[in-house]
Design a protein that fits this description.
With 338 residues, the protein is of the alpha/beta class. The protein is built from twelve helices and twelve strands. A hairpin with a 5-residue loop joins strand 2 and strand 3. This is Iron complex transport system substrate-binding protein. Belongs to the bacterial solute-binding protein 8 family.
Length: 338
Amino acid sequence: MTRRALPLVLVLLAGALVGCTDPAAEARSTTPTSCGPVTATLPDTDVTPLDPPPTPALPVTVTSADGIASTVTDAARILPVNLYGSIAEIVFSLGLGGNVVGRDTSTTFPAAAHLPVVTPAGHDLSAEAVLALAPTVILADDSIGPPETLRQLRAAGIPVVLVAAEQSLDAVPGHVRAIAAALGVGAAGDRLVTRIEGEIAAARAGAPDGPAPRVAFLYLRGTAGVYLIGGRGAGSDAMIEAAGGVDAGTAIGLAKFRPLTSEGLINAAPDVLLVMSGGLKSVGGVDGLLKLPGVGQTPAGAARRVIDMDDGVLLTFGTRSGRVVRALADALHCRGPR
């Protein structure tokens, strides 16, 4: 994923999307067609740290998601890295952003933008770049590699704590608690989870009643010839449903990401197309998107109902998730930002 490149998509290119009947097609509701293309934006793109910030109680010994125990003795120089930027969001939101010494390419929120990048190849760590920053603890998941680099960093004596790699709304609290535990601020982690869960619940509750628009998430990288549609478990489905929509890929039986075909997209019959802003740009904007096979033959294409959202926020599943759901719901239901 520029950011938002999804590591998930790298394993999805096998297989073909086949057309299948949609038993709910006749009952499908339609979405407003008057608001046309829109960019869903957050009113505040930065993270909000806990106040007051916690003081780490160290040392702590924790077991990584890969089963390896690590003892963290110093949180003065934290390096949070993964393909989504979610780990950095959590560290900054815990109030420890001042201790962070580097970032991945997916971490783009303003408070972290000045930090040096240690993933020049997207999801591959540069051992040299990491060692030059002298981190006292590295927080990552298995979307970052290669594994030999992580082994090299561990061999250099740096605690490397891996968290579970699942990217979903339900996984956010577990990620927060695991990272807070590794940094010796468990109570702060509980405070942050309470805040995040409240924001997500409020955003879900804010979705209007009535007919739910049918939304297809398209992962586009025109420069690389990658065109995928999301389904159940892709992550995009959770965001669409939380915002008050029906995931069109899931509705026709898709799982994760599948190659986009005109037959499959027409069968999915989305009222709205959801894309990342970088992906939309890569195909030449809305006009270029409408030229892709099958797009113009969908209700969304005919109405130019396209929603794009910044690559750095849409599928991050970090501490701003409640704000992301709210912004997506506003765009989906043709409301102005609140």
